Amino acid sequence: MSNAEAVVIVGAGPIGLACAISAVRRGIDPVVLDAGSIAESIARYPVGMTFFTTPDRLEIGNHPLVCSGAKATREEALMYYRGVARVERLRVRPFHRLVSGRRVGQGFELEFDRVLRGDRVSVRADRVVLATGYFGHPNRLDVPGEDLPHVSHYPEEPHRLAGLDVVIVGAKNSAIELALAAFRAGARVTVVHRREALKPSVKYWLRPDFENRVKAGEISVRWETVVRSIEPGLVRVEGPGGPAALGADRVFLLTGYHPDYELFRGLGVEIDPSTGRPTHDPATLETNVPGLHVAGSPTAGRFISEVFIENGRFDGEKIFGDATSRSRAASAGADRPVGE
Ligand SMILES: Cc1cc2nc3c(=O)[nH]c(=O)nc-3n(C[C@H](O)[C@H](O)[C@H](O)COP(=O)(O)OP(=O)(O)OC[C@H]3O[C@@H](n4cnc5c(N)ncnc54)[C@H](O)[C@@H]3O)c2cc1C
After folding, report:
1. Are the beta carbons of 125 and 107 closer than 8 angstroms?
2. Would you say the CB of residue 33 lies under 6 angstroms from ligand 1?
3. pTM of the model
4. Quick one: residue 329, left, alpha or beta (phi over 0 = left, psi -120 to 50 = alpha)?
5. Do 107 and 51 fall into the same domain?
6. So what's the pLDDT on residue 135?
7. Which of 71, 120, 189, 257 qualifies as a cystine partner to 134, CB 3.0-4.6 A?
8. Is residue 143 domain-resident?
9. Which CATH number is 202's domain given?
10. What is the mean pLDDT of residues 4-30?
11. pLDDT tens digit string along 39-69?
12. Higher-scoring residue by pLDDT: 340, 17
């Protein structure tokens, strides 16, 4: 591995930054490009949100994350990841979205939209790491009205929901957390869930709070109910009691997210149709396209909840550590498929 190797890391989230630090500590000076700001996904969390994970498990590059409470807030995490990028002198290029790439010789030519300027630039790389997370790609319900202005696939600051009828579709942690926060901010909340109960993965401190609010009639729940359509002011659902129309000033479809399969396939990465996992070597995270790695939650395909910050933050060690050197040496001279 030489200092002249041009490494491009796509995504300046916690995992992309951690990968960049792993590279820097091996004498590589990568460029990190992000479609948004540093830690764009966290910047899109609701204002004031608190992480589930303890601060020590959100740390990257052994930099301490100091926060005022037991858990870090969105704001503390943003300050932290920004600060780490600064002290590590990472070359971060915000607001550069990777749109396509192709093989040129043994390397890559990548096309990035400069979203604040409305133009496009090409970037050459010997090695590429896709640390693009999943937050940009919500799992859509594909129902009429899903793109109306009062509908969102992302949680919202609870204050903005005060006095409103709010329908939340989904019952994972972020849906339950938003339901509780919106209720406390003064919203009238209905949760719609296609299953008959909460999943066991709902956090132990959210579950009793939510169940008690439901028992007290403070939050409504429609179990075993699916959304048929959304219109201004209402959501049409169907459940055990037949069809119903729920009043809704705001609708939150919190039904999960998935990696950007289209981007990956466009780069020549094979995706397993049953799991959504990109083909990759688990030891080096190198995909079927030599020199192209994945990091963080996209390695888990559609099982995004298998990889969080706390277990994805060491992926850079796999990519830039000794295992990669061994694998690259073993595959030297092998035919390289060409990604479009
Ligand atoms: C409400 C909420 C609470 C959460 N709480 C926790 C928690 O307590 N603990 C925990 O570990 N995890 C938590 N998570 C999950 C956590 O946010 C993710 O695991 C984490 O952000 C993954 O980091 P990442 O770097 O892989 O991806 P991301 O943080 O999503 O970073 C990916 C980056 O890639 C960029 N990108 C995407 N596509 C492109 C492209 N084409 N070109 C250029 N850049 C691109 C994005 O802009 C983004 O900045 C939570 C998530 C949510 C939604």
Report:
1. yes
2. yes
3. 0.91
4. alpha
5. yes
6. 94
7. 257
8. no
9. 3.50.50.60
10. 96
11. 999 999 988 889 989 999 999 999 999 999 9
12. 17
